[in-house]
Design goal:
549 residues, alpha+beta, Endonuclease, Chain A, 19 strands
């Protein structure tokens, strides 16, 4: 039954790249496309290449790990991994299922120790240097060969045959760009819109309910680059109101949280919350010299701890006249007096109040729910939706993309999470510790050490991480064995209509198509001011490194 089907697929693979084979077969050979779907109907997958892989390798069922879980398809060339997780892979070693016999394994480790000074050569600086030099040499040879070939064929060192590519696309599909295919464009656009809409609804579920459907959803901005407002229902008071869907911002109910330019209502809420838990002073002044002073919105004398409530209006650069160094200078002043200062942004108290309250309680030593790490179970959290939801509910900075997520479970509930990825802003390190957080109002004693120890045992390389000086003193990193590298300069957020917006979305190269007022001769900050934006500064970060001498 599969013989002619396999011959057909083999012929197509010889002439069409695997990345384009789905659309190619579906458009030109719909009968074969339907046969492939029917032959692999037991697969619940959107990846057409996975279906082809099953046919070409005579597979007739879902591929499973020895533990019973489904294996995750990697690519057509690599197929499926041996196991579903590192834990299962380690169990293979424990069951002596490695190709190397125990005696050979011991001998290999001994040889590595004699030659390189370590049992695992991957951790040896000598081996790392050799690999680095070899890779560099290989890259140089490859580039030299490519330049030579391009010169011989086309008379240029750098060459891309765009005309030939476009001609091939026209011959095969009738268009010079694959995105111009109506079927592809409609399907891609609808799927992307559905994905964005569902993620937005799930993120905002605890706070507001959308009163509009996916058909009515038109994105963040309209064709004129103006924000689109939608109807929402507040879950706190039931009020219906209009608000936009700005990136990372929760729609703000005007009844629960009216715009408070200059008032101290929210600041009073913070003061009242602290007073309910511990003896404290409000608006405590510390005189510097003459009539100049620093004021703490909340001060706990017994703990040498203070809280600064940063209203977005009064602590901004233009309206509040707070320059780049205002917040870090204030932090450093109180640090010199032995007082630990915590900064809270206005929008954090409004939108992430539960997390902020938990952070304050932790600083005050008032967390009553304690779990010892030895009583928890360590697992890799492979479901990114679970990771994303846990971070949104428990970490002040919310979720972020990460490749390795390690969690601690207590009674089958995730109570602590540490995430890692390749460094976002530098290539000098192998990994970045991106997020660590416990479940709010819980203290996991020894949790961070347990998670970090597991990661360093299973993944080699240097690690980088950042401690936000608005609320962190870096003590956790010292416990984990990190070394302080340096302090980064304060960073800023833009403010518009009472919302704090990340500056990454407002780089000058992006402003030409975003702003009504724009000029190449102006700086990014000048353009933003002319368009009605203000900005607020943070305290910078402590940068920590691990694994470097």
């Amino acid at each position: 039954m599969d013989k002619d089907l396999k011959e057909f697929i083999k012929f197509q693979l010889e002439n069409v790249k695997i990345d384009h084979i789905t659309i190619h077969i579906k458009n030109k050979y719909p009968e074969f496309y339907n046969r492939i779907i029917e032959r692999t109907k037991y697969l619940n997958t959107k990846k057409f290449a996975e279906r082809i892989y099953h046919i070409m390798n005579d597979l007739f069922e879902v591929q499973k790990c020895y533990c019973g879980k489904n294996l995750r398809y990697i690519s057509y060339g690599r197929g499926y991994p041996e196991t579903c997780s590192i834990k299962c892979y380690k169990n293979i070693e424990g069951n002596n299922m490695f190709k190397l016999k125990p005696d050979s394994y011991i001998k290999m480790r001994k040889t590595n120790l004699e030659r390189y000074g370590v049992e695992n050569p991957a951790k040896s600086k000598i081996v790392k240097d050799k690999i680095s030099k070899a890779n560099k040499k290989l890259a140089e040879q490859s580039l030299k060969k490519r330049k030579k070939t391009n010169m011989e064929r086309y008379g240029k060192e750098y060459y891309t045959n765009a005309k030939k590519r476009n001609k091939t696309l026209v011959d095969r599909y009738g268009v010079d760009n694959i995105f111009k295919l109506s079927d592809f464009q409609d399907r891609y656009g609808e799927n992307r819109k559905l994905s964005i809409f569902n993620r937005m609804v799930n993120r905002l579920k605890p706070y507001v309910t959308p009163l509009f459907t996916i058909d009515e959803y038109r994105g963040v901005h309209d064709k004129n680059k103006k924000p689109v407002k939608y109807m929402w229902k507040c879950k706190k008071c039931g009020n219906e109101f209009k608000y936009g869907v700005y990136d990372g911002i929760i729609p703000r109910c005007v009844k629960c949280y009216p715009h408070l330019s200059g008032t101290s209502k929210l600041e009073q809420e913070v003061q009242e919350f602290v007073r309910m838990n511990i003896k404290s002073e409000d608006n405590k002044r510390f005189y510097l010299r003459d009539r100049k002073f620093y004021e703490l919105d909340v001060y706990i004398d017994s703990l040498n701890f203070g809280i600064e409530f940063n209203g977005l209006y009064w602590h901004s650069e233009l309206n509040g006249e707070k320059d780049k160094n205002y917040h870090i200078d204030k932090t450093n002043y109180f640090k010199s007096m032995g007082i630990n200062l915590m900064h809270i942004y206005e929008d954090e108290w409004i939108f992430k109040q539960k997390i902020v309250k938990s952070m304050i309680k932790n600083k005050l030593g008032l967390i009553k729910n304690k779990i010892y790490a030895r009583k928890t179970t360590l697992k890799l959290v492979e479901n990114f939706n679970e990771v994303e939801r846990f971070l949104e509910l428990n970490h002040i900075q919310g979720s972020v993309n990460s490749s390795i997520n390690v969690g601690l479970y207590y009674n089958d509930e995730l109570v602590s999470l540490m995430t890692f990825s390749k460094p976002r802003f530098t290539r000098e390190y192998d990994w970045e510790l991106v997020r660590f957080t416990n479940k709010i109002n819980y203290s996991i004693v020894g949790g961070a050490s347990k998670l970090f120890k597991w990661f360093t045992k299973n993944y080699s390389g240097t690690i980088l991480s950042y401690a936000d000086l608005r609320y962190s003193t870096g003590n956790l990193y010292n416990i984990l064995g990190f070394v302080e590298s340096h302090k980064s300069s304060p960073n800023y957020y833009y403010i518009k209509d009472g919302q704090r917006l990340r500056r990454n979305s407002f780089q000058k190269k992006m402003l030409k198509n975003k702003m009504e007022i724009y000029s190449d001769e102006l700086t990014e900050w000048e353009i933003m001011q002319l368009n009605g934006y203000d900005r607020i500064w943070d305290c910078g970060n402590l940068v920590y490194k691990w694994g470097l001498k």
